[in-house]
């Protein structure tokens, strides 16, 4: 399969990026299974690939594993080193399987110039079989203008991965002047895949990282940054995601503390009908 560009194939570029190949002889006795994949040029970032797609590739290894139980409910990925624009291996292993939950450990490795494998990402995931219970959403979707009433952000000239998302900012857009001015860190926007693509857990993991760094919003200085760890909590099952289809999601993110080289940010993503799909948190390095 070609990975050259979205225009060279009818397959969505995200599906190309998620096309992991499992080890031919299947899982080992302990359940560990290796998947082979590669960074996709359509999701290139300033250094290596967009972190959200790397996270999606890690979660995809769980979703493709033949021993998976249920749907993802929690997922944490740790960025131990910069992912290179090169092939990689993902090792996915069910660490423990209970009646309703399953706990996973994952790592991504890449070869250096001498051929030695090094860990670049680690991750944990929890999948579960959801039961019908009393349920309530205490984080309702804000009242905002509809997507077709909001202009799309001009993103060309930045990094390539941004072109893979249709972003329509409502509050707190990317700064247009890097003058050091300080503003609230809140961003609110409509967003969907470009071209549109039906939502699934892997793409929802990528959406969890779609917000530009909160430190750039809080203070308009292009300081170098890098996500250290990102967690996503999924609040819906696969059937609910399928019902969302390829519509816009309302995303919201804000920082909480910026101190001594690290900041955190929290985020939420709702469907257009107001269903809270995922909440996410990050801890991010920044340089002065």
From TrEMBL:
Domain Acyl-CoA thioesterase-like C-terminal: 148-285
Pfam families documented for this protein: 4HBT_3, 4HBT_3C
InterPro entries: ACOT8-like_C, Acyl-CoA_hotdog, HotDog_dom_sf, TesB_ACOT8-like_N
Domain Acyl-CoA thioesterase-like N-terminal HotDog: residue ranges: 41-127
Protein name: Acyl-CoA thioesterase
Species name: Ottowia flava
């Amino acid at each position: 399969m070609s990975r050259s560009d979205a225009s060279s194939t009818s397959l969505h570029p995200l599906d190309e990026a998620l096309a992991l190949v499992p080890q031919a002889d299947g899982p080992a006795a302990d359940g560990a299974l290796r998947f082979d994949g590669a960074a996709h040029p359509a999701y290139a970032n300033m250094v290596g690939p967009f972190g959200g797609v790397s996270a999606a590739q890690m979660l995809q290894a769980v979703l493709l594993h033949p021993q998976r139980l249920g749907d993802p409910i929690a997922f944490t990925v740790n960025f131990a080193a910069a992912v290179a624009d090169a092939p990689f291996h993902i090792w996915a292993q069910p660490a423990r399987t209970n009646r309703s939950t399953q706990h996973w450990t994952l790592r991504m490795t890449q070869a250096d110039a001498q051929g030695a494998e090094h860990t670049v990402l680690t991750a944990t995931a929890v999948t579960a079989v959801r039961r019908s219970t009393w349920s309530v959403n205490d984080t309702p979707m804000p009242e905002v203008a509809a997507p077709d009433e909001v202009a799309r952000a001009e993103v060309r000239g930045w990094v390539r991965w941004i072109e893979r998302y249709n972003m329509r900012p409502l509050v707190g857009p990317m700064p247009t002047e890097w003058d050091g001015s300080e503003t609230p860190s809140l961003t609110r926007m409509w967003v969907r895949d470009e071209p549109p693509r039906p939502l699934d857990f892997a793409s929802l993991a990528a959406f969890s990282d779609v917000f530009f760094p909160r430190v750039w919003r809080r203070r308009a200085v292009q300081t170098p940054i890098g996500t250290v760890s990102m967690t996503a909590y999924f609040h819906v099952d696969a059937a609910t995601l399928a019902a969302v289809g390829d519509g816009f999601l309302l995303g919201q993110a804000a920082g909480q503390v910026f101190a001594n080289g690290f900041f955190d940010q929290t985020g939420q993503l709702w469907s257009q009908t107001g269903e809270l799909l995922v909440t996410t948190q990050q801890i991010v390095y920044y340089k002065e």
